[in-house]
Every structure is written in structure tokens, then in C-alpha cells.
Amino acid sequence: MSKTSTEAKRRYNSKTYKRWSADLRLEDFSRLEDLRGELSRAAFLKKLLQIYEAENDTGADEAGE
Predict the structure, then answer these.
(1) Model pTM score
(2) CA 41 – CA 49 distance, rounded (Å)
(3) What is the 8-class DSSP label of residue 39?
(4) What is the dihedral of CA 34, 36, 37, 39, to 10 degrees?
(5) I need a labelling partner for 54 at 20 to 30 A (CA). Which of 3, 25, 46, 62 fits?
(6) Residue 57 in 3-state DSSP?
(7) Model confidence pLDDT, tens digit, residues 28-48
(8) Angle, vertex CA 55, rays to CA 26 and CA 59, nearest 5
(9) Domain-wise residue ranges, the chain
(10) How far is residue 47's CA from residue 44's CA, in Å, rounded to a whole number?
């Protein structure tokens, strides 16, 4: 990829996405990886949010997003 393309992609990603990370114990990481199965980590996190919101009768609008 050319330097210009890389810079453009970096600018787009910085406007569109936020990076989020967590330090997990190895056993917790393994449990999460087993649970997510074939889902990407992003898709798994979105699914967890949907489940959490459904169980707690809350949505993104109520959370201020």
C-alpha cells in the first residue's frame, strides 16, 4: 500500500473508530475466545451489548449515545 493510501486509511479510521483494550487474566481470555467461536471480536462485543441491553431493558438512546 502506498504512503498516501496508508495515511488516508489512518485518517478515516481515526474519525470512524475508537480503540478499546483490556488486560485479562489468561483464563478469562480463554473463556471469551471459546464463547465467541467463529465471530470476530468486534461482532462478539456487539452481540454482548445487544444481550446486555435486552436483559437490562436499556438501549443506546437511554445510555446517552
Answers:
(1) 0.66
(2) 12
(3) S
(4) -160
(5) 25
(6) coil
(7) 999 999 999 999 999 999 999
(8) 100
(9) 24-65
(10) 5
At 46, the amino acid letter reads K
Grid cell at residue 32: 471469551
Q: Which residue has the cell 471480536?
A: 41
pLDDT at 12 over 70: yes
The grid cell for 53 is 441491553
Q: Is the pLDDT of residue 64 over 70?
A: no
Contacts of 60 (CB under 8 A, 6+ apart): 53
Q: Which residues lie closer than 8 Å to 32 by C-beta, 6 or more apart?
A: 24, 44
**Distance between CA atoms of 33 and 4, rounded to whole angstroms?**
35
Q: What is the pLDDT of residue 61?
A: 57
